[in-house]
Amino acid sequence: MQSPRPVVVTLFLAFAYNTAMAQGVGYSDTPQLPGQKWKVHDIERPNPPVVDPGPAGEPAPAPSDATVLFDGSTLDAWQTADGGSAGWTILPDGAMEVKAGAGDILTKEHFGDCQLHVEWAAPAEPVGESQHRANSGVFFFGRYEIQVLDSFENQTYADGQAASLYGQYPPDVNASRKPGEWQTFDIIFEAPRFAQDGTLARPAYVTVIHNGVVVHNHRELVGATQHRNVATYAPHEPEGPIKLQDHGNPVRFRNIWVRPLAGGSDAGEHAHGAHGS
Question: ∠ CA(13), CA(17), CA(21), 5° rounding?
Fold first, then answer.
């Protein structure tokens, strides 16, 4: 009589695999990323090596030519997707915190090519695992995402960890600090350009510095962010809002500023402008 042990082992492995999928550790049934050997959120894709970025410093002052989006005093620069008042919480220490259910917040002012500085922190006491731990995101044009996540000793799929170009590329290294400590993103974003017929003339490019460590160097975006699917481009205006995501987790943000960048396009230059509702 055959031993029942292989059946038990098989059931255990199936249970472990399904549990991992439910926690968002990775997937095996997603489409292939163009020009890569990996699928979207590929369970087999290795996580980047860990780098200690050193301790957090004091908030970096905004340059004199920057537009300050949040200085700890007001959410007047932000609104909901339908143009309502931003409903996140301003804390006594001058940070703002995601209010679960209040929805994403978007800048009233719109930007094209720009330099963005964002400081954020996960809760000091970690709650949840994988994608359920301090999940948020920084989006350009409301559609191109740099992932916010507590990635300190927290396993998840490689293209979904902190500072990833979500669903496209992991960061070159994991430069995350411990939960509760302040993290910085310094991002240079070059917007895509579209021809008059709506076809893509030039893709978007992004450079991301996480806690002082370059983790993406002028990397080409595949397209607009999607979950479990390949990103694609669709034509849009030359400027758009910057969005912070409500993913239901109490992530804090502070000291957010942006500098428009001019002269970076071979398909027409755009100036910085306001398109608030």
Answer: 170
Reported as a single tens digit per residue, the pLDDT across 178-203 is: 999 999 999 999 999 999 999 999 99
Domains and CATH numbers, the chain: 29-274 (2.60.120.560)
Per the prediction, the chain carries an average pLDDT of 86
State pLDDT tens for residues 40-79.
999 999 999 999 999 998 998 999 999 999 999 999 999 9
Give the pLDDT confidence of 115-148 residue by residue, as tens digits.
999 999 999 887 877 876 778 999 999 999 999 9
Which tokens hold the place of 53?
């970025």
pTM of the model: 0.85
Closest CA to 109 of 50, 67, 172, 66: 67
